[in-house]
Amino acid sequence: MGVMDLYYRLPPTARNWALQTYGAWQAYQRFSGKFSVWYETLMKTQYLDVEDIKSSQFQFLKDLLDHAYSTVPYYNRLFNQYGIKPDDVTSLDDFSRLPTLSKEDVVNSFNSLQSSQAGNYQPFLAKSSGSTGLRITYLMPRELKSSFSTANQWRFYSWSGVKLGDRRATLGARIFATRPPYWAWNRWENQLLLSSHHLDIENLRLYVQLIDRFRIDFIQGHPSAIAILAEYLLMEGKPLRMKGVFTTGETVYSDDREIIEKAFSCKLLDSYGMGECAAVAQQCGEALDYHEISEACIIEFDPLGDGSYEIIGTSLLNYAMPFIRYRTGDIALPESNTMCECGKGLPVKISKIYGRIDDKIVLPERTILPVTVRMHMKPLLLPGELYQVIQEDLKTIRVFLSGPVDSTRAYRIQMEMMKFLSSDLTVLVEHTQGIEKHKNKVRNVISRVAER
Ligand SMILES: [Zn+2]
User: Fold this and answer.
1) Rounded to two decimals, what is the model's pTM?
2) Tens digits of per-residue pLDDT, 121-157?
3) Are 284 and 274 in contact (CB under 8 A)?
């Protein structure tokens, strides 16, 4: 039994106590250390002249290349093999001629990619989500993951006028409750946690009351979940006034954006990134383009021949296990016009990101979000396995897996699907080799019943 199973079984008061303890620990990780230094720095650097930002970014890159060459066996070997010394890289053009780093390279060279000085950066082991293929394990410096990422997140919120300490509601993907209450207040971060897996009318009504009771200033989470809450508010004729809505993790459909901005009387700002922090980009509200977060990364593009591009990212802050010209597997359209009306010097780099394109599952009595399906499928998968859940009609779900399926495994998956979807369904589990990718992403949830 895992820690989370144990947690689910606690009585509500004990569960609340466990959550508060965890929340305090998490807040300590995020806000101790160099958080305020980073936050103050980032609030200033965003308004530097674009040329100043680019030259600082290049200096960060040079430092990283020196460090990689002298302390990371993988890069020392690679640079020597190509006859390159870090000093030879005098422009981004030179840099773009260095070889890329694939996910396979990270798996095969896990040991030699570690800096001999990794210990100085308090690294911990992290795992990628695997949404674009191979799941990788890598080292992440604690400061990058906690202080920097939190500071950057709050700077992002500031783009809609949010101030440090403002109260937020998170409609998140994490499953933190399998029975009521489907919400929690994390007082350490002034954060109202709302489960995005239980969005029925009764809970939506409760969520709106909670947002009012805790005087929430802004909302963050998955756009598909926030859109359901927004739809409910419009249906009830009771729009709210928020400072901002911030989304991540999924494609924002234009009709969802419209509903959300109307229901919360504010702009929706979307962000792009991944655990590896090799490429980070955010919308500012002026346009639908994304600013590169140049203090943390360099974003490049590799043409795929069909008019779209793979995002190549370099993390400027991971000195424990440098990711230089990392193939993210994410597909985008670049933006060449680097000026933005918002006045920030951070260059505009991306005009469109091809993110997840999953459907909702529509049952007679309720709708299930794709994120809910993904969260329940995740623990049932074998390493590297692809899957597709297809709703054929109101009564039939087919689950296709790229890995081997025997009767025990099929039965386990059937039971799990019926538990969180509906026991009235027929669930068929099959092996297939025919799962296709679109823009490098598998469509994990397809509904032939859904409206889109
Ligand atoms: Zn802008």
Assistant:
1) 0.86
2) 999 999 887 666 678 899 999 989 889 999 999 999 9
3) no
